[in-house]
Design a protein that fits this description.
With 623 residues, this protein is an alpha+beta fold. 36% of the residues lie in helices and 20% in strands. The chain has 19 helices and 22 strands. The strands form 5 sheets. Strands 1, 2, 4, 7, 10, 12, 13 and 14 form an 8-stranded mixed β-sheet that branches. Strand 1 and strand 2 form a beta hairpin. The longest helix is centred in the middle third of the chain and has 21 residues. The radius of gyration is 25 Å and the shape is globular. It starts with 7 loop residues before the first helix and ends with a helix.
């Protein structure tokens, strides 16, 4: 039993309206211990965060207060929070009485432990400012935006970056409700991952500023608190959905994500009601480090998905699916991130099948199978320790959290039948809604509610092997794509020496391009590379996925004519999935490639999100 449960009634009496509900449970089993937090939630935990912050674009800092509601076990004297390079001026109780606090030494990965002496206080107010280079925040000058006229700010919290701008217990297993007032220059608009409580223009504030208020009355893991500020406009895509972005990008963005209402309907038909109110999207500047981020009520999206043909809407389906797997039921620690990403990749594919048909869904699944086998091979093969689903946080190789996790679920579906599996999965989301989960907890639930003592089915599924052992079990289900089989035929002809002009890729979706480019032999002659580039227009493609795949092939052959285009790409796109392989490829090319990688990074670094810059720095320095 959670030792904090007897204190719930006392907390409810003290909490504001937004938090007047029983806090989400925490898990206290050994596998639920989060080694990426300083917090000790079994002693004292945060249940609600109330932010009142001002965005200082000149100083590139957020300043103001965070008011935390605390649920403490009997006799608890202090609460431990996660902070990273915050300047804290004072801490008080709700009445303004000062509270003692200390901030411990900074760990390069985890930040610092901030310990506040509580006394009788169950609400604490922290006055603070963010530090230079806060890992969650990217402050963009006007020239790095689409409009080139106004600055931009956005946050990226996952996995543990939000401690650099919010002093709280930054663990996915410690769910919290929140509200915020964000004050920004009057010519900018603030958006957040919660219900918008004011109109598009906010409410007037002093000194040429205005404020926007937001709230989230459902307990969420703190990495899902997200903010963006910029020259933003909105366009509806349906009765409960719409897109925010810079005005010059708005029509293209809205067109690209125009199927989102069909996706919401499909998702609800599969696994139950969408429980977050609105589903809006924010298309960010090119430096956004991910394809998408599943922030509740406001998915963040990379502009690299905008190709004019909706061939990358799987990213939207993926982030929408997170509204169930990840946001509704969340991995308790990052050792089990496959519970978020593997479930979501499976669910994403089911949404794509419902909206676009089996052939298109098979195309995505088949490409994922390619990625799965590539990641396993590069991680040491069937015995590689980083090919396990459950393991040290952040250690799973490549995208195996996504690919191996989704293949695991697809294998269960094939074994028990789709109808039985869907009924189970829908009930699973209902049973664990707004709660953390572990691999052990999922397997226990699976055995209790699906397998139900069927020893033959238990043996057939090999659950523990999938979850805890390396490699790919032999019962893994591979979905093959007829569409990609046609690409494979053209690829085989080119591999046999046939002319590139016979490929005729007009009308290809991104996935067909990737199957072709990634299937080419890594060793090519300069003449063949020239033929590929000139015939297929690879260096001038407007599809970021194509540009990235072409760059990998060109670098593997030290093809210098491609370098100007590659340099232009890595200095204009900040999505890690697309640029990391380029830097890794250059570094593998020794004396030829390593100076180029460092030169590109020196030029591009200021345009990257801090998390991306740190990841690329590790690649180019080897540290």
């Amino acid at each position: 039993m959670n030792p904090l449960l007897p204190a719930l009634a006392a907390l409810t009496l003290a909490a504001p309206a937004l938090a007047q509900q029983a806090p989400a449970p925490i898990l206290t089993t050994p596998e639920a211990k989060d080694v990426w937090t300083h917090a000790r939630p079994e002693i004292a935990r945060v249940t609600h965060v109330s932010l009142d912050l001002t965005a200082d674009f000149a100083a590139k800092a957020m300043r103001g207060t965070a008011t935390l509601d605390v649920l403490a076990a009997k006799g608890a004297r202090e609460i431990v929070l996660d902070v990273d390079n915050l300047t804290v001026s004072k801490v008080t109780d709700a009445a303004g009485k000062p509270l003692a606090f200390t901030i411990g030494p900074r760990d390069a990965e985890l930040g610092s432990a901030m310990t506040v002496t509580l006394g009788a206080a169950r609400r604490i107010v922290i006055h603070y400012a963010t530090g230079a280079g806060a890992s969650a925040l990217q402050w963009l000058p006007p020239q790095l935006t689409a409009g080139k006229a106004k600055p931009y700010l956005f946050s990226q919290g996952q996995p543990i970056n939000n401690r650099s701008w919010i002093p709280t217990q930054d663990s996915p297993g410690i769910r919290q409700t929140w509200d915020a007032k964000i004050t920004v220059p009057a010519d900018l608009v603030a958006v957040m991952s919660g219900e918008r409580r004011d109109g598009a223009k906010g409410i007037p504030a002093a000194n040429g500023m205005h404020s926007f208020r937001f709230s989230m009355d459902k307990p969420v893991p703190p990495y899902l608190i997200a903010l963006a500020v910029g020259d933003l406009a909105f366009k509806a895509t349906g009765p409960r959905s719409g897109v925010w972005t810079e005005p010059s990008q708005l029509d293209a963005a809205a067109q690209e994500v125009g199927d989102v209402e069909k996706m919401i309907d499909a998702a609800e038909a599969l696994y139950g009601p969408y429980r977050w109110g609105r589903y809006d999207m924010l298309v960010l500047p090119p430096s956004f480090p991910f394809g998408g981020m599943e922030n509740p009520t406001l998915t963040f999206l990379t502009p690299t998905i905008i190709t004019g043909d909706r061939s990358n809407t799987d990213v939207v389906a993926h982030e929408l699916a997170h509204s169930w797997s990840g946001n509704l039921v969340t991995n308790a620690t990052w050792s089990d991130s496959w519970l978020n990403e593997g479930f979501t990749t499976y669910f994403e594919n089911r949404i794509m099948e419902a909206v676009y048909g089996k052939d298109r869904a098979a195309m995505y699944a088949d490409l994922d199978w390619d990625g799965l086998n590539k990641d396993i091979a590069e991680a040491g093969g069937q015995t590689g320790p980083t090919t396990r689903l459950h393991g040290d946080p952040g250690a799973t190789a490549g995208q195996l959290d996504y690919f191996k996790g989704s293949t695991f679920l697809r294998t269960i579906e094939a074994a028990v039948g789709r109808a039985r599996w869907d009924a189970y999965l829908r009930s699973y989301f209902d049973r664990h809604a707004f709660q953390p989960q572990t691999t052990a907890g999922f397997l226990a639930d699976l055995r209790a509610h699906l397998i139900q003592g069927d020893k033959a089915l238990e043996a057939k599924l090999q659950l523990d092997r999938w979850a805890y052992q390396a490699g790919l079990p032999e019962n893994a289900v591979h979905v093959t794509s007829p569409t990609l089989a046609q690409v494979d035929a053209k690829l085989a002809a080119v591999r046999a020496g046939g002319p590139v002009s016979a490929v005729q890729p007009q009308g290809w979706a991104t996935q067909q391009w990737l199957r072709f480019l990634n299937g080419l032999p890594r060793q090519q002659t300069p003449a063949r590379l020239k033929e590929l580039d000139e015939t297929l227009g690879l260096s001038v493609s407007t599809n970021a996925y194509v540009r990235s795949a072409w760059a990998e092939l060109a670098i593997a052959n030290r093809y210098e004519p491609a370098l100007p285009g590659i340099e232009a790409f890595v200095t204009s796109v900040g999505r890690g999935l697309l640029i990391r392989p380029i830097y890794e490829g250059l570094m593998k090319q020794g004396e030829w490639g390593q100076p180029i990688a460092r030169r590109f990074f020196d030029k591009a670094r200021a345009t990257y999100h801090p998390a991306t810059a740190a990841a690329v720095e590790k690649i180019v320095t080897g540290k």
